[in-house]
Every structure is written in C-alpha cells, then in structure tokens.
Amino acid sequence: MISERDWSAQEICHILLDKQLCDSSRDVRTLDIRPYDQQQQRIELEDGSGTLKSTFLQAYCSRPIELEDVTYQGLLQDYTFKADAYTKRRRRRIARVIPDYKTASNQSDFCRAKVMLHHPFRQLDLSDILDDGFDGLTDSCWETAYDYYLTYHTVHPRDTLEDLPGHEESETDSIEYAHDDDFIQDDGEALAMRLAAYDGDDIVRGSELGSRAIDMDFD
Which superkingdom heads the taxonomic lineage of this protein's source (predicted)? Predict the structure, then answer.
C-alpha cells in the first residue's frame, strides 16, 4: 500500500526545532502501563553516538528510598525530577494512561494495570508485589491481587481506565498549569507510544471517534 501525507511548513519547523505542536493550560502526561518487555525506549543522538534513555517505569523502580511508598501514577502526578532529585509539586499533573485496557476482553491486563498504578512496587512482578503487601493470598494471579486491593484500600485514586461497578474512584485531581522539563516526551515519542499501545481489537482507537454508537445516536 502507498499512502501520502501532506506536512505543513509550520509543522515541519516545530518538529525540527523540537517545539511542542500544541499548548494547553493543563499539564497532561502519558503514562505507559504495559509490562517491561512491551515498553519502548528511545535513543538520544548526540555527537554522533546514541544513548539509550530510561523509560519512566525504569525510573520509578529506581526511585529514592524516601519515595518507597509513592505509587507509579503518584510519582508522575506529584513529583518533579530536576538536578538528580525529586521535589514535591504544588499541583498535580493529569496522567493519561495507555493502553486503555477493558475488563471484558483484557481482565488480567486490566487488573495488573490497576495494581501497577496504585500499589507501590520495585519490580513489576506478581510474586514481588504479593510478598510486599498482599500477604495471605494463595491464588497468585493479577485478578486476585486486584480483588485484595479493592477490599483493603478504601480510597481508590482516579485514573483514565474504566471503573468496576461498586468501586468508583474517589480521589479528585487538581488541574496543573505548570510546565516542567522532567520526563518530557517529544512529539514523535508520544505518537510512537500511542500507536504502539493501540494494538489489538480490545483497545479503543482514535479512528473510532464519530462512528461509535454514542456518536451515531447523537447525529
């Protein structure tokens, strides 16, 4: 197949100069919730050599000991990394998690993502997480770990994944107006992450907008 795309001079200049293609009053960051082996690392070219950059998941697992109880989503929303140190933010970022797992067709990945987002860990391994805080579980699977989380955690932080009936999220996010340079994704990296995440019939695709049942009913 041969496809064609027209690039405007303004868009090309923004990409070449590493400028953002859009600006927003809300500081929204993409948070990848796929396992280690499915996350993509980017290579930063400088002086003719390439440096492999760490993913945010790798940065989270190597966080300082004083942030031991901070969750994966909490680190992105509440902390800024500058000068090799983490500082607490005044206002929270908005975290947009990808992929958008659905319980109907991706139950195990959905449960893993929920536990991954809201329970602290050092290694994204079920046995490590169970040993860390989910004592007494005999059935070692992500569904069981998530059931335990729902039972023993009264506050369920908000995220962009769907809610299970009877377990609606209860935490309110603040709107973030500041713009930081830590873990900023360039436009190509953010697009690559989104395209890589949209793999499979269980993921909601942006191309479906306008053709969904709710859109057709509106027309």
Answer: Eukaryota
Burial class (CB in 10 A: 0-12, 13-18, 19+), 99: buried
Is the separation of the CB atoms in 183 and 59 below 8 Å? yes
Question: What sign has the CA pseudo-torsion 54, 57, 62, 63?
Answer: positive
pLDDT digit string, tens, across residues 26-47: 788 889 999 888 888 777 777 7
Written as one letter, the residue type at 27 is D
Interacting residues of 75 by C-beta distance below 8 A, sequence separation 6+ = 60, 63, 67, 86
State the pTM of this model: 0.64
Both tokens assigned to 105: 């067709």
Task: State pLDDT tens for residues 169-207.
Answer: 555 444 343 444 444 455 555 656 655 555 444 444 455
**Pairwise CA distance, residues 4 & 115, whole Å:** 42
For tokens 């290694």, the residue is: 123
- Residue 36: both structure tokens together: 């280690």
